[in-house]
Amino acid sequence: MRPLARSLIRPYVCPSCRSGRLPVRRQFASDAQVTPEIYDVVCVGGGPAGLGLLAALRASPATSKLKVALIETQDLQKARAWNLDSQHFSNRVSSLTPSSVSFLQKIGAWDHVDQDRAQQYQEMQVWDGETGSRISFDWSMETSPFEDLRTVATMTENSNLVRALLSRISASGDENISIFSNTTVSSIENGADLPDGPDLSAWPILSLSPTGTAPSQGPSRIAARLLVGADGINSPVRRFADISTDGWDYNRNGVVATLSLAEQDPVPFPLGTKTAYQRFLPSLGGPVALLPLPNNHATLVWSTTAENAAYLKSLSPKSFIAMVNAAFRLGMPDLKYMMAMERPTSSDVDDQHESELSWRLQHTPPSSPQPPLVTGVQEGSVAAFPLRFRHASTYVSPRVALVGDAAHVIHPLAGQGLNLGMGDVASLARTLDYAVTHGMDVGDILTLERYAAERYTTNAKIGGACDMLHKLYNVPGQGPIAWGRSLGLEVIERLPFVKGLLMRQAEG
Amino acid sequence: MATLRPTLRALPKSRPLLLPRHPQRAHSTVSANELSHFSALASSWWDPQGPSRVLHLMNPLRHEFIESCLLQGTPPATSTDPTEKGTGTANTLKYLDIGCGGGIFAESLARTINPTSSAATHTRAASITALDPSPTLIQIARDHARTDPIVAEHLRSGTFSYKNCTLEDHVASFSSSQSLSTSSPSSPTSATPLNTVTPQYDIVTLFEVIEHIDNTSPTSNPTTFLTDCLRLVRPGGWLIGSTIARSLTSYLINQVIAEAPWPVGVVPRGTHDWAKFVNPDELEGWVQEALMRGADRGVTVRGGASALGEGMRWCVNGVVYFPGVGWKMVGGSESWGNYFWAVRKGF
């Protein structure tokens, strides 16, 4: 009799791989009858989500007995050795919510994060550049003066987090774990029903090959009881599992940079309070945000049109700094004008943007949130990446689960992307722990559906809210939508309990 | 909120038509239509979205209930098997699953067997034997076990085995050939000597079985069936099961709603016979009687409750299915719906 599970499994090989990989497949056909090395969990992708999952599985007594593997194209040795001095910061920084931090603490990874490079902030100023209406997320209103200020989020460089997760995983020992660095997955296929062994016909079998010139390490074919796709927006695992994904491109770019700031004036009270600033710029295509880093540095995330992003990237450091300062201070028409200024052709007119800014500032009433002045931009830190929305039609399929960007990509305006990934990983690790302690197969759909049920709606809600905010704050001018959104912000601002509720939601 | 009865396990039953290699016995405990009903469901047994879905969802709670029983006590380590004592592992319990069907519980238990681990697992299982009278279901169970290399390895090494036989056959395999013990409950002392029906298991499980036992015959009824089950339990071990109480709620939910046509119903029509449902107090009575009958067979015949020995325990815990959420343990709900029950055999 045909085992039922076989009929449930969808083909793991996408059409393009089938056509492109024919010679490779033939080569594997010869050893199809050889039992591949069997793993309980195989995670493709060694970013924060994949490493977070591995660290979480290693941290729990039940799941630490699972035999796990991680496959990463990049050289993880470089990630382990990552180091920067205290005045330089990577431009890939994430805002970790308290629930992400407490997950990282629970799995013992937070101790490995270099705390001198992480920056908490307690307040968040958000305002509409078109109407001036504002909302400030200030925890100090909600806590008694004897308590520590509540943290809205903690800014952490992704490299700092990845290094911490790697060292947490190393600290868990090398039993039952294989890390295949510098390795790509060349194909994923269903296994075979071995007459003298197990029936692996519904199991994904991965063929591994070394990237570049790196020597091959370990077996080239491995079987996965559970294959986890933590392999990003173009997830090969998702394609192999034939899971469709829905979404759109925002036609916006996120411009990031590491900035240094002037001393804050007045000195914040209580001392050490840090604030994040975000100003919506409807006429320029999205919000600009300044998020604090240690030692009076900050990271910039400016969501804007691709043309504006290209313009900003092409500016000299001085002009770039002037544009960032302008973005937090000037009115929309002034900003639009400056964004269209001729790019300086020679260095002697390099201060064109600067002088334009100082002249226009004299004619602009000071807005109430006053972020500190940007005084410098770290060399080579200005970069742009396209903003997209993606949501997979499902996170699970028999013996396959998707986490992080492989499952969903959202607009960065609320800084929730990495936090959703951490939430996925925490949930999947919890699900697998439940499975192991209840005799369930960790790759069985009955196990995995618990994870999907826990995460799908949550992620869809947050992704949808960010999308809605993006669309709402892309309507320029003073029309009814602008009044409506300012009304919304003002109402929230005036009703403390509503704001508290919203902030707790944002906290995760 | 509902007390859905999932699809069930086929019951120990010998039918010459289906089981030519087993002789039919007059005292078989289930009717033929129960067996054919569940054999017909075989092809969808492991379909997570199929008619057995509600049963699959209940399986993790069986592990939790077993764990709660083990916390109350386990049989003392076997003196007859010194090899196990020396290994230093806490996982020494031998399981028997009666009416395993397609192997939903048996396979999940086999997955917890870890011969290399010295740390106690939640089931503390060392081995499991699973019985079902339906050859179709046993074949389904064996085929499915091969899809998990760990379980397949346990099957190969013998720590896990499926037996296509009835409970009566299994008991007989431990008895001397002339004493077909349960055939004459009217003369319970007709003496199978204790040493020929040695209790073999620390934990015997009986999930969704008892309500399918034929209760019309004086020679084959739930009490004779439970007597056989309990005789296989080592002193200090547990007989653990689940069933449904016979209440108005369970009638409406199991007979009217759950077996309604799709999309309302979730279990196939004919899965349950409400009249065979068992209330916890009835079950407790049967178990007590079965324990005394079992004790009467022993060399030391004692009377009354003292025959049950020290350490005997009876536990029940209600469980409720909430659509969209799943099964939850709900204390007190045992009198009107699904419930787990367990009896610990005295020393």
UniProtKB/TrEMBL annotation, chain A:
EC number annotated for this UniProt entry: 1.14.15.45, 1.14.15.46
GO cellular component terms attached to this protein's record: extrinsic component of mitochondrial inner membrane
Reactions it catalyzes: a 4-hydroxy-3-(all-trans-polyprenyl)benzoate + 2 reduced [2Fe-2S]-[ferredoxin] + O2 + 2 H(+) = a 3,4-dihydroxy-5-(all-trans-polyprenyl)benzoate + 2 oxidized [2Fe-2S]-[ferredoxin] + H2O; a 2-methoxy-6-(all-trans-polyprenyl)phenol + 2 reduced [2Fe-2S]-[ferredoxin] + O2 + 2 H(+) = a 2-methoxy-6-(all-trans-polyprenyl)benzene-1,4-diol + 2 oxidized [2Fe-2S]-[ferredoxin] + H2O
Residue span(s) of domain FAD-binding: 39-257, 378-456
InterPro entries, sorted: FAD-bd, FAD/NAD-bd_sf, Ubi_Hdrlase_CS, UbiH/COQ6, UbiH/COQ6_monooxygenase, UbQ_mOase_COQ6
Record keywords: FAD, Flavoprotein, Membrane, Mitochondrion, Mitochondrion inner membrane, Monooxygenase, Oxidoreductase, Ubiquinone, Ubiquinone biosynthesis
Gene3D superfamilies: FAD/NAD(P)-binding domain
One Pfam family here: FAD_binding_3
PROSITE patterns noted in UniProt: UBIH
One example GO MF annotation: 4-hydroxy-3-all-trans-polyprenylbenzoate oxygenase activity
Top-level enzyme category: oxidoreductase
Subcellular location field: Mitochondrion inner membrane
Keyword match Nucleus: no
Cofactor or coenzyme needed: FAD
Pathway in which this enzyme or protein is active: Cofactor biosynthesis; ubiquinone biosynthesis
Record's bilayer topology term: Peripheral membrane protein
Description of how the protein assembles with itself and partners: Component of a multi-subunit COQ enzyme complex, composed of at least COQ3, COQ4, COQ5, COQ6, COQ7 and COQ9.
Similarity section: Belongs to the UbiH/COQ6 family.
Function in brief: FAD-dependent monooxygenase required for two non-consecutive steps during ubiquinone biosynthesis. Required for the C5-ring hydroxylation during ubiquinone biosynthesis by catalyzing the hydroxylation of 4-hydroxy-3-(all-trans-polyprenyl)benzoic acid to 3,4-dihydroxy-5-(all-trans-polyprenyl)benzoic acid. Also acts downstream of coq4, for the C1-hydroxylation during ubiquinone biosynthesis by catalyzing the hydroxylation of 2-methoxy-6-(all-trans-polyprenyl)phenol to 2-methoxy-6-(all-trans-polyprenyl)benzene-1,4-diol.
Matches recorded under NCBIfam families: Ubi-OHases (TIGR01988)
Entry protein name: Ubiquinone biosynthesis monooxygenase COQ6, mitochondrial
TrEMBL record, chain B:
GO molecular function per UniProt: 3-demethylubiquinol 3-O-methyltransferase activity; 3-demethylubiquinone 3-O-methyltransferase activity; metal ion binding; polyprenyldihydroxybenzoate methyltransferase activity
Residues binding Mg(2+): 208, 211-212
Catalytic activity annotation: a 3-demethylubiquinol + S-adenosyl-L-methionine = a ubiquinol + S-adenosyl-L-homocysteine + H(+); a 3-demethylubiquinone + S-adenosyl-L-methionine = a ubiquinone + S-adenosyl-L-homocysteine; a 3,4-dihydroxy-5-(all-trans-polyprenyl)benzoate + S-adenosyl-L-methionine = a 4-hydroxy-3-methoxy-5-(all-trans-polyprenyl)benzoate + S-adenosyl-L-homocysteine + H(+)
Any one Gene Ontology BP term: methylation
Alphabetical keyword list: Magnesium, Membrane, Metal-binding, Methyltransferase, Mitochondrion, Mitochondrion inner membrane, S-adenosyl-L-methionine, Transferase, Ubiquinone, Ubiquinone biosynthesis
Residues holding S-adenosyl-L-methionine: 62, 99, 132, 207
Enzyme Commission number(s) of this protein: 2.1.1.64, 2.1.1.-, 2.1.1.114
Pathway, per record: Cofactor biosynthesis; ubiquinone biosynthesis
Pfam families: Methyltransf_23
Class in the EC hierarchy, top level: transferase
Entry cofactors: Mg(2+)
GO CC annotations on file: extrinsic component of mitochondrial inner membrane
Topology in membrane: Peripheral membrane protein
Compartments where found: Mitochondrion inner membrane
Entry keyword annotation includes Mitochondrion: yes
Assigned protein family: Belongs to the class I-like SAM-binding methyltransferase superfamily. UbiG/COQ3 family.
Complex formation: Component of a multi-subunit COQ enzyme complex, composed of at least COQ3, COQ4, COQ5, COQ6, COQ7 and COQ9.
Protein name per Swiss-Prot or TrEMBL: Ubiquinone biosynthesis O-methyltransferase, mitochondrial
